[in-house]
């Protein structure tokens, strides 16, 4: 195993008084599809720009394929970027846009022609070679931007919210295409997005950022099933959060008091009275008309009142109000709805190990 | 169709404005084709004044001076102004706001003040008045206009395409030549046209800094007018008008097409 393709070592970026990226360290493996995910202003684009060479880190180091590059300008780095606005050259046609990088690197004419045509074929836009950017649709511009970057055989391809400007359908299609392209070429992709669904479907690993801090790095399943922080649990997918304090703990289970409700969860090394948050995914919970006959350490059961049912096709999202007015979202199969109406009492339950206990 | 009184009045009012704007020019052009030497009575159509003009060596000499000064000063002012505009657009530095504002100031400084101050400067430095001083002065007053026009073009410029160029391996200079320049070229060209026409018809500043052997066309006309407005001057003015209009229209068309 060779070293990582991209390595960020304690990178800090400040703009004036404002710290945009706090002490960020991250390794990105060769051939990996890594997504920087976070809300706008979380520092993900700044992080990408530091890898690209458009921003100089205030402190810390950036390593690319084993070499420190933090002091190299963008044009001396072996990475290419697909910009959010595509940033195609308006005065050049599609062919010349793609050829630009090879031309400035003084690649031989025949080789340029061959590689540009190959890149255009890769994005299925060979017939559009002579079109100017203004004569191309959004999706086509997007692909030209990708071809323009990939034609240079970069070590890393950086993508800054490249699908943001596309409509929903085209977006889904491009997600699949991009993923295929990445697998086929084996190029390391660093992808920036604020769309958690996009991140979950495309990435090998996701790095979740918030307010310039790296909250968690892991596979989509890690991030979804085992969020490390409250922020990650809330940002990725839908989740129910119950806050409380640790009451009892043995080696297997601990009991958390959430405003009078007793919630069991897998035991963690935590002192008593520690403040914690329990996160439960809607699809991990179930509803019942009466309490299920079982022990408190087998199943968490909370009484509530049905507040609202939201039809979502095959599934229905059911909002239950727990004691203390806490809303809890569960999922029901639309064709197997419980025979209850709004305002009726019912019970929410889940297995203790499905509740993720968060301390921050 | 019947129009209301208000509507009739507004049409009348608008007509007056345009009449006032263009009547003198129309008369000037018309009388440049008049046979009579007097600018009062129309006696018949002729091209004589234009022919006579082309035989007037003083006028031809002034025309040559004007063209040389305009060409050189346009070239220099466009280069200086474009670089200034790009620099002001791209870089952030201490005192930028003040420097930026000071670039535009010469546009509002009275020309006579500019003229006198330049004359004083050249006298102080003991630079003899002539082509050099004339060109230097014209560059000076053209630069702000070039900056204004180029910056307007840069305002709509997508900065990320410069980053894209550098991302693809282009050095800052290559980026400027291969991306920035071609994209803002219509603005540069329009600014050059503006600088050219400004130089071509400047009177006040040129009056102070031109030497005896370097009178520009407007200065020549000015001196000819002292002895009365002859049809020959009408013809000369008409020619200048045609040239200036042609340049402006050409510049506008480039600007419109590229936008």
What does this structure look like?
- Chain A: InterPro entries: AAA+_ATPase, ABC_SmlMolc_Importer, ABC_transporter-like_ATP-bd, ABC_transporter-like_CS, Mo/tungstate-bd_C_term_dom, P-loop_NTPase, PotA-like, PotA_ATP-bd.
- Chain A: One of its GO terms (cellular component) is ATP-binding cassette (ABC) transporter complex.
- Chain A is an alpha+beta fold and 360 residues long.
- Chain A folds into two domains: 6-231, Rossmann fold; 238-358, RNA polymerase II/Efflux pump adaptor protein, barrel-sandwich hybrid domain (OB fold (Dihydrolipoamide Acetyltransferase, E2P)), CATH 2.40.50.
- Helices cover 23% and strands 36% of the residues of chain A.
- Chain A is built from eight helices and 20 strands.
- A six-stranded mixed sheet of chain A has the order 6-7-8-3-9-10, with helices on both faces. A five-stranded antiparallel sheet of chain A has the order 13-12-11-14-20. Chain A has a five-stranded antiparallel sheet with strand order 15-19-16-17-18, with no helix packed on it.
- The longest helix of chain A has 18 residues, at 168-185.
- Chain B is mostly helical and 259 residues long.
- Chain B has one domain (56-258): Orthogonal Bundle (MetI-like fold), CATH 1.10.3720.10.
- Chain B contains eleven helices and no strands.
- The longest helix of chain B is centred in the N-terminal third of the chain and has 34 residues, at 57-90.
- Chain B is globular and about 70 Å long.
- Classes of the chains: A alpha+beta (360), B mainly alpha (259).
- Chains A and B meet through strand 6 and helix 2 of A and helix 7 and helix 8 of B.
